[in-house]
Every structure is written in structure tokens, then in C-alpha cells.
Amino acid sequence: MTRTLRFREALREAMVEEMDRDDRVFLMGEEVGHYQGAYKVSEGLLDRFGAKRVIDTPIAETGFAGVGIGAAMVGLRPIVEFMTWNFSAVAFDQILNNAAKLRQMSGGQLECPIVFRGPNASARQVGSQHSHAMEHFYAHVPGLKVIAPAFPADAKGLLKAAVRDDNPVLVMESETLYGVKGEVPDGEHLVAIGSARVARPGTDVTLAAYSRMTYVALEAAEALAKEGISAEVIDLRSLRPLDEATLLVSVTRTHRLVVVHEGWPYGGVGAEIADRVQRMAFDALDAPILRVGTLDVPMPYSAALEQACIPQPDRVADTVRRMLARGSGR
Amino acid sequence: MTRTLRFREALREAMVEEMDRDDRVFLMGEEVGHYQGAYKVSEGLLDRFGAKRVIDTPIAETGFAGVGIGAAMVGLRPIVEFMTWNFSAVAFDQILNNAAKLRQMSGGQLECPIVFRGPNASARQVGSQHSHAMEHFYAHVPGLKVIAPAFPADAKGLLKAAVRDDNPVLVMESETLYGVKGEVPDGEHLVAIGSARVARPGTDVTLAAYSRMTYVALEAAEALAKEGISAEVIDLRSLRPLDEATLLVSVTRTHRLVVVHEGWPYGGVGAEIADRVQRMAFDALDAPILRVGTLDVPMPYSAALEQACIPQPDRVADTVRRMLARGSGR
Amino acid sequence: MPDDSVASPSSPEPTKPTPVAATPHPELDHLAHLYRKMALIRRVEEESARAYAEGKVGGFLHLYIGQEAVGVGAIAALRPDDYVITTYRDHGIALAKGMSARSLLAELFGKVTGCSKGLGGSMHMFDKEHHMLGGYGIVGGHIPLAAGVAFASKYRDDGRVTVCFFGEGAVGIGGFHEGVGLAALWKLPIVFVCENNEYAMGTPLSRSMSLEDVSLKALGYGMDRDRFFADDVLEVERRVAEAVKRAREQSTPTLVEVRTYRFRGHSMSDPAKYRTQAELEEHKRRDPLARARTALAGFGEARLAEIDGEVEAEVADALRFAADSEEPTLEVLERTTYKGDFAY
Amino acid sequence: MPDDSVASPSSPEPTKPTPVAATPHPELDHLAHLYRKMALIRRVEEESARAYAEGKVGGFLHLYIGQEAVGVGAIAALRPDDYVITTYRDHGIALAKGMSARSLLAELFGKVTGCSKGLGGSMHMFDKEHHMLGGYGIVGGHIPLAAGVAFASKYRDDGRVTVCFFGEGAVGIGGFHEGVGLAALWKLPIVFVCENNEYAMGTPLSRSMSLEDVSLKALGYGMDRDRFFADDVLEVERRVAEAVKRAREQSTPTLVEVRTYRFRGHSMSDPAKYRTQAELEEHKRRDPLARARTALAGFGEARLAEIDGEVEAEVADALRFAADSEEPTLEVLERTTYKGDFAY
Ligand SMILES: Cc1ncc(C[n+]2csc(CCOP(=O)(O)OP(=O)(O)O)c2C)c(N)n1
Ligand SMILES: Cc1ncc(C[n+]2csc(CCOP(=O)(O)OP(=O)(O)O)c2C)c(N)n1
Ligand SMILES: [Mg+2]
Ligand SMILES: [Mg+2]
């Protein structure tokens, strides 16, 4: 049996279930309590769990990210919400130098079972300082895990798995997905971190995406289908670890790969996927791997320009057409 | 005519010449003045230019990086030294959200002519918190330029060009290179940002490297030459912008590319190069592009383990041999 | 809305007012001048809210309604060439520093005629000509920049003062500590104006700070401090002027806590459930704009109506201008990202 | 070196001392106990320096010589299950909290028998069993962690107190402000001990802070504070104990500034040209270790010699142990990076 839930409700259920199950789990962040969450993800949690376990913080990301890490290293299991991932930039050192390093610096004595979560990448016209796709910075760092679900069921299952993970897990959500509905299995629902999912089977080209871009890839696949082009869409779900097997199996069949992601082109998750696949499936590729990402500029406020910067189904479909016409990107 | 200078002396000359030329240029950072620089790069500058233009700061990277950016946006041309780039992690937001965004957020009204410089990547046994290759985070960001010279002449010429650039330029130096000697042209010596250099010509494989890894690549090429394998070594010098032309010309001749860099494998500069070259020279490649980077773990203190983590000439040479034996990395 | 009725007569007439003889009252003239600025801000904000509701403005919109006396009073204490920098709640500050309503509303409408070519939006109002160095979106992130601007003035000895505005919610973050700390250490010509409007989104100061007196933070830096309410714009000007004088003449920084209140939610999406209607009404009774208008009784109703009319005309014109302007095109992006060649 | 001669007799005998009868002097016994810890730290540091010179230790090495009374005195005020966390200058703190000289020196030698398996080195001494939560390399970065540890104690109501050590150079950075600010806001059971040794590398406090009294920072957080010299280890214990009592009984934080001095350079590469020989000598005359030994006159020279002998034996044994231990192997890296499967 399943129920239809919004993305934010699925995340909330995951937190409620894990907090019910384990009283070492608590939620901390700006406006998560009395305000019921800047994006209402934590609505009702303060009433349900009280101020001891649902903690409103001042605007001090370095401070409360560090508090979470410190609490985790002595055995609590914090969920730290960044109002948006953009603001994690002021806490970057805490995540890079403490969360990711504690276990190894201590020779394995200490653990850091913490979850950092919040909306990531573009919202709508919030400008250059509020539109970062931060996963490209964090997926680079050993010691961290990074997940980016697209559907409510995965949001719930992956967040629950993240809370139970003994390593720091960063959950990349999307303000533009919080209202999206989807079927969520009843009862205990866990999704293993590190497994991608074929969201739409196809034979001519593989589209790899995650978070909101999975919907963009699916739309492009729909459009291409009308032209008789069969695109397989892989929803990565997890960025670090990356599910190489699922990618390789698909590319070995389709011989073509287009990676769709928000965020700038230089480096990052998209480049990593291109690098791995050309390395591991070199002979299987009939065309160079292409990427559809955010244009290489700070995000503009103008609605028209913002939409032009963010990957759209058309841009994805055009890229596939170019590729099938043996476009090598030159 | 040239003179033999150490890397740190070449950097110092660049700063002295630019500060003599333009009194809007000043140097700011921890221990740059009275202490003569943590690594003696700024030795003598306080005596020469006085405390007004050679400014010792407290330990407050967010503060003094921001002060530099603020001063730059009203017309000064700061050189901000990070004692090491690791410490820029606490100033990450200033670089990402202010330095890189100012021009665009203001619709082009403001400029940010600032240089951030300091030693980057591994030193010797300084452990996981002090061994980051930070270029992989910064090269991702539009609005920034990132350079990483390997030789004293380039260190001088590129730093001078960076000081004259009207955009934020990040200079990645290396503690392990400061004592290295090299020939530096007399008189005004500028090197354009964005141009790579063929450090050693070759025909069988291209090795792309930068900063200290250029020496590692050259050593590997030397070893391979003894086996009759001719490796061309490209010293990238500049990471953003990246000199695609020089890379493509080389790979089109050698049909093989190995990227050598410090820093973790996931994403970053190495993945970006692999992505671009497979896209732009797909048909020219006889083998998948391979990368030799730092192992995917926090840097250990143990001398033996640290050396095992950092790319060594042997590892580079082995990778080339594997590739020539048509190793596809599988 | 009742709180604005004074400043915004339901009918925008007279658009063409009959000239009225001037009184020999310099103080009143000055107050009238400040009143006009506050009224302009109030009306621009009301129209921004309306335009937002109509979908003409996107993203976040943080209104300055209720806080007008802070920006107008503080900036009245400055020279035109002094610098100002603030947060995303920047419309009032930008207008007070001299930005035109046209350029501000065009920016909100995402038009290329906007101050930032439509690339910045509500949170990023920049006006280099008027030394308005922008609105910034990362809480506390602009405070070190402000110290840097003041550093440059000291370096060049140009006699300018920098005023840095921020909310009381910024006082707990590292950027505040480091920016203020360096300004105190290096004796920079700057005034830090904390606009304490009692809330950071839905968080009252009592839940974000161990002390409720923000100005006490100055003790930890051995810095001068001041603390007062912003009911009277002239009082704000007087008090800030003292700090500006210290900055200009002795090159020492001051932390000024100005107690104010925002009549609207944090942003358009905030219903402000965290405060009572009674609390809001009480503050609206202290509306600095209404207070200024009352204080201007002796100035003459006719001339006040004239000012209100001018403001209405200016806002109407700016709205037309914004609506009729062109949107920016893609080619603007690369050259606003880098000066010179693009770097990729 | 003259400053250490008292604590380190040129000859390591007697390795097997003849037992001596105990005096009925609890205070003296306690001081002797603290003296022993300080002497052990002093000797371990001297040997670390020697080993570094011989190339057996790599990376950065920050010695605690001169500051022993701070760590030993402060930790003497704690229960064994209380938490301690500090900076890269962590050898003395680790030993004071109960880490063995074996595990510390083996870590310095980069051996797998070291507290952190040879992966952390000098700056990262961790000992979970003794609740020594580590040494950290990013200035100020561990202060929020310390607040988090204290937060956990309050969350679990486990009655433990956390002591967070840091240098005076950390007071200007954001991590200090945010960590201390949250501890004050949430009334966490923690004591912040600022080891003011007058220099941050080559920078004297006068060039890094607008105020020279670090403890005044507490005023900005409405927090209790204290400030004193570390010449007498018993005084350090007494004063820190007051703060620990407040933390344990009322769950309130305190900022304690302990004034001390490092006899060596910042790290092995620092010739310390920024201070005069005279200044150094003056401080060495106030050596807390020598002072404690003098105060122990009534304890009996024989028993003191016995203690010194034990210390020598312990250090000699630890050096042997470190030298003879194995180096870590590559396979240790993956499992210390992630618990469970590696994530790439
Ligand atoms: C570093 C950071 N964290 C969180 C946010 C989200 N945020 C935007 S405004 C705001 C509240 C700020 O309140 P205050 O400083 O009092 O200014 P006010 O809005 O009242 O003018 C928050 C939490 C942000 N912009 N930056
Ligand atoms: C954020 C950061 N910036 C710079 C450094 C380099 N650094 C290491 S120790 C040190 C001086 C610290 O002095 P203090 O806090 O007084 O501690 P002490 O060394 O005197 O014990 C500096 C600048 C660092 N480790 N972290
Ligand atoms: Mg506020
Ligand atoms: Mg110190």
C-alpha cells in the first residue's frame, strides 16, 4: 500500500519516524521550530517533540553546524537543517575539516553520525547568492556522503537511511520540489544510499540526472519519444557514493550518455560522471559524453535569464539530437 | 638575460615591482610583515613599503578576505595572503559570494581587482586539515580566475599579471616549491593568464599537470623515455581559464592523455579536463583519459602513507604503461 | 492600510500642485526634506508589494516599511561621497542614498534599466554613482566588506565615512565579529548601524542572543556605542551624526543600535504569525513617517500635500518606466561575470 | 637547557628508586601529583623536540613547554569523565587528561600504535577512552565542536563538563564568536580556557586585538569571566574549579583567560625573533614547573628525585615503544575514512 505525499511531507515523516525510534536524534536549525520551518518541512515537529529536540538557532551556521558535529562525536545523531545550502558556505570549514575528517584524524576512534539537509540549487529568481548547487563542492570530499532525491518516496527512504548512517550525510533537497506529490510506501521505508534507479527505460541514449533535473530529463525523454528516440533516464539519487554499475549497464546498452545537472560546468558531479564513464566504458561509447548544466555565470535575477541559465527539457532534447546526429561537441 | 631565483624570490619580486608601480597595491595577511612571512615570501616588504602597505592581520580570514574585497570594490588592488589555502575554507563565503559575484550582482558597476595567494596542497606530514588542494573548489566558480605556476619565471610573470587583472585571481603556490630555483628573465616579465606551456615535447602520450605535479610528470617522462616511450608534458599554469587549445593540439598528436594533479579524484580540475578532452577530441583518443591524483582519503600524517597518497613519478609512469598496453582503466 | 494612510492619500492628486510660498523655517524645511524621502520609500515599498502580488516582481522581497527613519536619518548625517552598504532589506537605504525610484523599480521588475541591469533584483541594489555599495544576501557577509571600504578611505585618506547597516540577527555570526573586530583594531572610519527590528524572520532577539542589548557587544571590542529608538528621524540623524563625526575626525568606529520595527512580514511569504496584532498596532502608533508629518504641522498642509503629490507622481512615473523598460538579454551575462575575456 | 634543568636531571637515574616513606601531607601529595604530570609533559616535549631534530617526527610540532600549569591545573579541576578539547598545541593537554606517553610519542613517530594510528600526528591527539576529544588544526574551528559536546551533556543530562582550550589568537575569529555565543545563549556546561601566551606565532596580542584583556570578551555575551596568571598550578586548579562548579551545578559557561608563556617558538621552524632574550628569561624565572618543585621542598628531595626518576623511566619506555612500533599500512585509510562501505 502507498499514500500520496508531498516531498516536504515525506521528509517530515522520515524525521518523525526516526525521532520516535531513537531519542538521540534531534533537529536543529534556523526557524525549524516556532516558525515551523522556513519551507514548512519541519511543521509540527516542535509541538510533537518539544524544544529540547527541535532547536531554533540564531544565524550562526559555523556555530550550529559545529555544535551538531560536536554532539555527534559524543554519540548523539543530529539532523542539522540549513535554511538553504547556500548558507553552508559560511560553515564550509566545519563540514570540510571537522565532519569529514574526525574519523580519520582520530584513527577511527570517533564517529560523526550527522545529517545536514536543506534546499539546494535554484529556487525562483532569488539571485546569485541564493542559487548555488552546493553538491559540486561537497561530493569532492572523502568522508562525506551526498544524496539528492527527486521523488517523495526516495526523499523519505534516503533521509531515514541517512539518519541511521554512521557517517556525515548531506541531503540536497529543492525548494522547487517541496510541493511535488508522489506515492510513498506505507510502513517502514528505507532506501539504500548509493543506488541509482532507472526512472524510464530506453535504448538510444542514457540521460543521467538527480533532484529536480530528473523531471527535466523525463520531460526531454517524453519529447524525444514522440520523435522515435528512446531515452533511458537514470535518477542517480545518490551522488557520493555514485552507482557506477547502473550507469555502466545502461551506457553499455545505449552507447550514449548525457548528464543533466544544475550547477556550473567546471568540475563537479557532471565532470566526474563523464570522467568515470569514458574511462570505464570507453569502447562502448559511440559519441562523446555531453553535459547539460547551468550556464557558467552567477545566477541572474531576471526571470527570463534565470530560465535560460538553468537546464530545460528543450536544451536536453537538443543535446540528444545533436549527439545522435553524431555531434561530438565540436 | 636571466637570473636564477628561488620560487619565493620570484613571487617577492613580482609583489615589489607591482607595489612600486602602483600605490593602490598592498599586501595583507597573517605574519606577512613583522614576521617576514610564514614562509618568507614577503621577507623585507614591511621595511620597504611600511606598515601602511604591508599589513599584519589577526587570525580572521573571513574578516581580512572581506576587507580586501571591500577595498578592491572601491578601487584599491589588494594582495591577500592566506598563510595556507587551507585556511581559506573559513573565508569560503567571502570568495564565493562576494569576490566572484560583485561584478554581476551590481550589473557590472563594481569591479573586484584582488589577488588571493598562498601555498596550496600537501606540504610534508602536516595532516588532513592542512593538506587540501583547494583549487578544485575554486576553479568551479565563475567570476574567479585560478592559476598554479610550477616554475619561478611563471610564478613572477603570472603573479604580476594577476595583480593587473581587474578580476579576482587566486594564486595557488606550494610550500614544497618555495625553495626551488629557476631562471627568471630580467626586466619586466609578464605571463598571460590562460596559457599553458609545453614543458617537454613528446609523441606517444600527453601528461597534463600544474604546480608541483609538473615536476612529477617531468620525472615520469624522463623514466619513460628510457623505455623508449615519448611523453609530452604540458604545464597548465592556469586552471581557470584553461588553455584548451594547447591540450587539444597535443592530444590530437599523441592520442592519449593522463592528467596529473594533487587533490581528490571526485570532480575537480582533473575531471573537468577529462570531460573537455573526451568531448572535443573524442575521435583522436586511442585510449580513455586517465588521472593520477591524490588517493580519495583525508591526508594521513604518516610519512609513508602520505607519500603513498600523493601522486609519484612511478604511479604516473605505471599509468602510462597501462594505457599504452591499451589499458582502458578496467 | 491604516498605517500608511497618512503618507499615501487615497487620491494621488494634485499631480500638478499650485506653488506655495516658503516659510523661513530651516528646521522644518529640513524635516520636510527627510519626510519626503521617507514618504517616497513608504510608497515605493507599497507599490513593490502590489507589483509582487501581481507577479511583476519575483524572488524574495523584504520591505522597509516602518524602518524608514533609520536609513533616512542615518544617511542624512552623511556627505554625498560617503559610503553606504547594507543587507537584502535595501530598498529604503538605496533610495535614501540617492538612487532613483526608476532605477530601483526597474531592477525589481527585472529590467535592463534597473540599477543592476535586472541581474541583482530586490536584494542587490547597487548605485556606484551615489556610493551605495549594495545590498547583500548572506547575513553578516557584507560587514567585512564595509570594513574594507573604510580601510580604503583610511588608506587613501579621502576623509570619507562608511555606514554599514545590518539587522540584529546578524550579530551572532562570525562575519559581524571579524568585520567589527578589524574595524576596532585598525581604527577605521566607519559606523555600524544595527537595525534592531526585534525579529530575525520569526526569531525574537531573546531566542538568538544571551543579551538583549545589542550595543553591549561593543564592550568586547573597546568600541564606542549608542542605542536609541527610531521614532524621530531627526533624533536618528543627530545620534548617528555623533558617530559619523568620531569616524571622520578621529577615525574610530562606533556600534549604533537603532531600535525599530518592520510593519510587514520578513518577506512577502511571511504571514508573521509569531507576533500579535496588538504588538503590531502598538508599533504602528509610533510610525516615524506619521510622526514626522505631525511634527510638520507648522509647515503647512498645502505644502505637505504638495510633497505627497510629488512623491505620488515620482512613484507613478517610476512604475511606468519600469513597466515599459526592456528585459536584459543573454549577452549581458558574460561581460558582467568577468571584466575582459571570459575565463573558462 | 637552563629552564628545564630542574625537571630533567642530566642523568636519568635512579631508574629503580629506593621506596621512601610517605609524609601525612595531603596538599603536598596533591601538588606532587600535579608536579609529576607537569614534569612528564616537560620531558615528553623535550624528547619530542629532540626526535624532531633527528627526523623521527615530521610535520608541525608545537610544544607546550612553559604552559604546563594551564593544562594540568585546569584538568585537575575535572572529573575523569569530563570532556576536554583543544588546538594543535595539544600534547600537554592530552597527557594531563590521561593519555599515555607511549600512545602520544608513538603518534608523533607516525606509528600505528599511536593514539590516532599515526594518521593524526602532533596536531591531532585523540583519546576517546580518556574523553580527550582531540587537538585541531584550524584556529577556532574546534570551539563550536566544544559547545556541541557540552550541548550533548545537557541534552543527556549526564552531569559532565566540557573544557575547551584555545590560544588568545583564536579570539578574533568567527568560530570563537559563534561557539561562545551559542554556549552563552543555551547556557551550556562548558568552560572556555583561553591560554594567553602573549603571541600568536609572531603576533603579540596588541597587534591582533583592540583590547588586551581577552576576558572582557565575555561582557558581550553576558557570560562569567576570570583572568589570572598560570605561575602556580594550584591557583589554576582553584580558579578553573570555580568555573567548572558553575558549569556543573548551574549549567552556565565561563570564559577564563589564563596568562602564560611558551618557552619555545611557535613551532619547530620558528626562531622567535619577535621577542627579546630578556623577555624570555624573565618568563623562565616564573617557570611553573620549577615553582611547583620549590613549593614541594617539604615533600622531601628523595621523593622528588623518585618522581623525576619515574618520569624519566616512563619517557624512556615510551620512546622505546614508539621507536619499536610498526608503521600503519595503506589498508587502514579506507576504513578510517568511512564507517562501513567506502563511499566513492
Ligand atoms: C548566513 C545566512 N544564514 C541564513 C540566511 C537566511 N536569512 C535571510 S534574512 C534572515 C533573518 C535576518 O534577520 P535580521 O538580521 O534581524 O534582519 P532583518 O531581516 O530583520 O532586517 C535569515 C535567517 C541568510 N541570508 N544568510
Ligand atoms: C583559520 C586559521 N588561520 C591560520 C592558521 C595558522 N596558524 C596556526 S597556529 C597560529 C597562531 C595561533 O596562535 P594562538 O591562538 O595564540 O595559539 P598558540 O599557538 O599561541 O598556542 C596560526 C596563525 C590556522 N591554523 N587556522
Ligand atoms: Mg531583524
Ligand atoms: Mg598564543
Give structural attributes:
heterotetramer, A: 330 residues, alpha/beta, 7-stranded mixed beta sheet, 5-stranded mixed beta sheet, C: 344 residues, 13 helices, 8 strands, binds thiamine diphosphate, binds magnesium ion
Question: What can you see in these coordinates?
Answer:
Chain A has helices at residues 7-21, 45-49, 61-73, 92-99, 102-105, 135-138, 152-164, 213-226, 244-254, 268-280, 303-309, 313-324; strands at residues 2-6, 25-29, 54-56, 77-81, 115-119, 145-147, 169-173, 181-185, 197-200, 205-209, 231-235, 238-240, 257-260, 290-292. Chain A is α/β, with parallel strands linked by helices and 330 residues long. Chain A has a seven-stranded mixed beta sheet, with helices on both faces. A five-stranded mixed beta sheet of chain A has the order 9-11-10-13-14, with helices on both faces. A two-stranded antiparallel sheet of chain A has the order 1-8. In chain A, helix 1 packs parallel to helix 7 (152-164), helix 3 runs parallel beside helix 4 and helix 8 crosses helix 12 (313-324). In chain C, the strands form two sheets. Chain C has a six-stranded parallel beta sheet, with helices on both faces. In chain C, strands 5-6 form a two-stranded antiparallel sheet. In chain C, a hairpin with a 2-residue loop joins strand 5 and strand 6. The longest helix of chain C is centred in the N-terminal third of the chain and has 28 residues, at 26-53. The complex binds thiamine diphosphate (2 copies) and magnesium ion (MG) (2 copies). One thiamine diphosphate sits between chains C (89, 137-139, 167-170, 195, 197, 199-201, 266) and A (30, 59, 61, 83, 87, 90).
| Strand arrangement in the largest pleated sheet of chain C | 2-1-3-4-8-7
H/E series of chain C: HHHEHHEHEHEEEHEHEHHHH
Radius of gyration of chain C: 20 Å
Order of strands across the biggest sheet of chain A?
3-2-4-5-7-6-12
